[in-house]
Write a structure and sequence with these properties.
By secondary structure, the protein is an all-alpha fold. It has one domain. Helices cover about 75% and strands about 0% of the residues. α7 packs antiparallel against α8. The longest helix is centred in the middle third of the chain and has 37 residues.
């Protein structure tokens, strides 16, 4: 198992993909955390009903400091998927299986090799959002809230959430082995489909609870807040429920991959 881990880790480190996506994620998180921090502190916070949105300093800080979980999770998800789809894209799966015939160990090797990257992406996301968010709050003479245990807990859980997204990506990549299709689905779902779906479900009282079970909402629940919940547009599951739902998506995708693509003969 350790040989499989080392092999998969070397594969991931041998390309520029891991640090390119890491930099793109950091830039995205910095941009959105800065936008929301300045919007909360300097902008007009009038809601859709014409009344001012009253957001407690703690909720405001958690929302900004966990911005990666709300708007940056596509990057660890994509990287996790690419770790698996690259074997099919570059036709290296046959060679990999010659060195490691067990397909279950192959998947476990991918998952364990993803863990260091998962931690790295989570830590960088937290540093990026906290850095720009705290600077914006301090500039506006707002409480930074970095001495609040609940805020620190949410920041720590946001690292876990970003890491969980990468593991989900590995499972997703085993089910959708076409690399182009996997990237299109990841971007389409995270940036367009789920945000629209969450807003749409919020306007239908009978269906609104279903929004909590969507993948993005589950990740935000693990962190404890999001700009959707802060604005009153979406409720969240408890943290343990969010982690369970999020990992369930990854397990279901991995199960589909195990029953389909990973059982096929390799040419």
């Amino acid at each position: 198992m350790s040989a499989s881990f080392r092999s998969e880790l070397r594969k991931a480190l041998s390309t520029r993909l891991w640090w390119v996506l890491l930099l793109l994620m950091a830039a995205t998180v910095v941009f959105f955390a800065g936008v929301f921090a300045f919007a909360f502190t300097f902008g007009d916070t009038t809601g859709t009903d014409g009344e001012a949105l009253v957001i407690a300093p703690r909720d405001m800080a958690i929302t900004v400091y966990t911005m990666g979980v709300s708007l940056g999770y596509a990057f660890p998800l994509a990287f996790g998927a690419l770790m698996m789809t690259s074997e099919f894209r570059h036709r290296t799966l046959a060679t990999t299986l010659l060195a490691q015939p067990s397909r279950s160990r192959l998947v476990l090797g991918k998952l364990t090799a993803a863990l260091p990257f998962a931690l790295l992406y989570g830590v960088v996301s937290a540093i990026a959002s906290v850095g720009v968010g705290a600077a914006a709050f301090a500039l506006a003479d707002q409480p930074v809230m970095l001495d609040d245990p609940d805020v620190l807990r949410s920041i720590a859980l946001s690292i876990v959430a970003m890491g969980a997204w990468m593991l989900v990506g590995v499972g997703f990549g085993s089910a959708v082995t076409n690399q182009v299709a996997a990237i299109v689905i990841v971007l389409g779902w995270t940036q367009l489909v789920e945000p629209i779906l969450r807003l749409a479900l919020g306007f239908v009282p009978a269906l609104a609870p279903a929004a909590k079970l969507l993948p993005g909402a589950a990740g935000e629940a693990l962190a404890g807040s999001s700009f959707y919940s802060a604005a009153g547009m979406s409720d969240l599951l408890p943290a343990w429920g969010g982690l369970l739902v999020l990992l369930s998506y990854g397990a279901i995708a991995a199960g589909i991959g195990w029953l389909t693509s990973l059982r096929r003969d390799v040419a």
